[in-house]
């Protein structure tokens, strides 16, 4: 069973700008205590029932020490900068093949997707030279973890949050993500294939701390 440090409720806002989506995530996180209580009653069925999970788990590495060392006022003024640099750790063990979740990092949405074998094959058969931003799936994932596609959930056109992370959402003509704002289609590797977006969905810096826990940032 996956463990997460903090799990927020579902709050889809696919057509909103990333900043707006982030604000909603923040607001949702503020209710996490109450939700955690409810979640504890249904633990074990929650993740299975959800096809779309927001996980806002923040690792404040270095934050504690900084908070002790500086006065309260300085701490408050510094917190935004510190938090902006913070990493998150996400337990991905509950994300089944073919599922994706949306979490939040540096106040922006991040998609974590467990690609199926056909989705990997689909990504690998693409002629890289035909791509607007030529990148292989291997270049966008990590060795031995090619099934884990981790990208920012921010359209590279004007910053909307694309659809496709939740089951039942439109994934676009190439089976990845679709931004309805102006019609950008991303493939199963999160690469732009059609529409006005100029670049692939950005892959953030991340590392697997174990088979099931990934650190983003
Ligand atoms: S913001 Fe995504 S297509 Fe314009």
UniProtKB/TrEMBL annotation:
<dbReference type="InterPro" id="IPR005805">
    <property type="entry name" value="Rieske_Fe-S_prot_C"/>
</dbReference>
<dbReference type="GO" id="GO:0005886">
    <property type="term" value="C:plasma membrane"/>
</dbReference>
<dbReference type="InterPro" id="IPR006317">
    <property type="entry name" value="Ubiquinol_cyt_c_Rdtase_Fe-S-su"/>
</dbReference>
<dbReference type="Pfam" id="PF10399">
    <property type="entry name" value="UCR_Fe-S_N"/>
</dbReference>
<keyword id="KW-1133">Transmembrane helix</keyword>
<keyword id="KW-1003">Cell membrane</keyword>
<dbReference type="InterPro" id="IPR014349">
    <property type="entry name" value="Rieske_Fe-S_prot"/>
</dbReference>
<keyword id="KW-0411">Iron-sulfur</keyword>
<feature type="region of interest" description="Disordered">
    <location>
        <begin position="1"/>
        <end position="46"/>
    </location>
</feature>
<dbReference type="Pfam" id="PF00355">
    <property type="entry name" value="Rieske"/>
</dbReference>
<feature type="compositionally biased region" description="Polar residues">
    <location>
        <begin position="1"/>
        <end position="11"/>
    </location>
</feature>
<protein>
    <recommendedName>
        <fullName>Ubiquinol-cytochrome c reductase iron-sulfur subunit</fullName>
        <ecNumber>7.1.1.8</ecNumber>
    </recommendedName>
</protein>
<feature type="transmembrane region" description="Helical">
    <location>
        <begin position="52"/>
        <end position="73"/>
    </location>
</feature>
<dbReference type="GO" id="GO:0008121">
    <property type="term" value="F:quinol-cytochrome-c reductase activity"/>
</dbReference>
<dbReference type="GO" id="GO:0051537">
    <property type="term" value="F:2 iron, 2 sulfur cluster binding"/>
</dbReference>
<keyword id="KW-0408">Iron</keyword>
<comment type="function">
    <text>Component of the ubiquinol-cytochrome c reductase complex (complex III or cytochrome b-c1 complex), which is a respiratory chain that generates an electrochemical potential coupled to ATP synthesis.</text>
</comment>
<keyword id="KW-0249">Electron transport</keyword>
<feature type="compositionally biased region" description="Polar residues">
    <location>
        <begin position="25"/>
        <end position="37"/>
    </location>
</feature>
<keyword id="KW-0813">Transport</keyword>
<keyword id="KW-1278">Translocase</keyword>
<comment type="similarity">
    <text>Belongs to the Rieske iron-sulfur protein family.</text>
</comment>
<keyword id="KW-0472">Membrane</keyword>
<dbReference type="GO" id="GO:0046872">
    <property type="term" value="F:metal ion binding"/>
</dbReference>
<dbReference type="InterPro" id="IPR036922">
    <property type="entry name" value="Rieske_2Fe-2S_sf"/>
</dbReference>
<keyword id="KW-1015">Disulfide bond</keyword>
<dbReference type="InterPro" id="IPR017941">
    <property type="entry name" value="Rieske_2Fe-2S"/>
</dbReference>
<feature type="domain" description="Rieske">
    <location>
        <begin position="113"/>
        <end position="215"/>
    </location>
</feature>
<keyword id="KW-0479">Metal-binding</keyword>
<keyword id="KW-0001">2Fe-2S</keyword>
<keyword id="KW-0812">Transmembrane</keyword>
<comment type="subunit">
    <text>The main subunits of complex b-c1 are: cytochrome b, cytochrome c1 and the Rieske protein.</text>
</comment>
<dbReference type="InterPro" id="IPR019470">
    <property type="entry name" value="Ubiq_cytC_Rdtase_Fe-S_su_TAT"/>
</dbReference>
